[in-house]
């Protein structure tokens, strides 16, 4: 698969985690693709720079340069969309009014801690709203490639990069598998189509348990 195919696969699976009428915040990168796989009007997408009711821009004719998400990508507005300043937007997040946050990651460890904002010695964008989303969102889903560009596992025993929050994430979705944090344990819940358990074991540094659903298929 190309990297684009991998990203689309992950985004499509993440969309299946969303319940109708949820308020959902999409992070930068793979998370922005999730909107393509959600029935219009079934959930309410939120962007921390101040909009609820975000929709994917499907036509260049509808492009409005003043309408962008937190990643500065052009977006469209759904029927009934609302606008507010960034202070009110973060009040929504911190007040627990965002049901789901979908974030990218540099690393996720076997306890559920995420590092997604800094690599020591490198100049990257910064934390953005990730700290607030991890603290305030009801459910946190991580969408990420299973390994880094140099082949190292991004699902690790312990994060070596600075963690983003003391709040643990709930779900990890990669092109190989779906993991969930259950009672403080990393549990393998699904294998992606065509992926073997041995391949996941080989490419995952973290220790994990195998769900009954997968064991039943063996």
Automatic annotation (TrEMBL):
<comment type="similarity">
    <text>Belongs to the 3-oxoacid CoA-transferase subunit B family.</text>
</comment>
<dbReference type="InterPro" id="IPR004165">
    <property type="entry name" value="CoA_trans_fam_I"/>
</dbReference>
<protein>
    <submittedName>
        <fullName>3-oxoacid CoA-transferase subunit B</fullName>
    </submittedName>
</protein>
<dbReference type="InterPro" id="IPR012791">
    <property type="entry name" value="3-oxoacid_CoA-transf_B"/>
</dbReference>
<dbReference type="GO" id="GO:0008410">
    <property type="term" value="F:CoA-transferase activity"/>
</dbReference>
<keyword id="KW-0808">Transferase</keyword>
<dbReference type="InterPro" id="IPR037171">
    <property type="entry name" value="NagB/RpiA_transferase-like"/>
</dbReference>
<dbReference type="Pfam" id="PF01144">
    <property type="entry name" value="CoA_trans"/>
</dbReference>
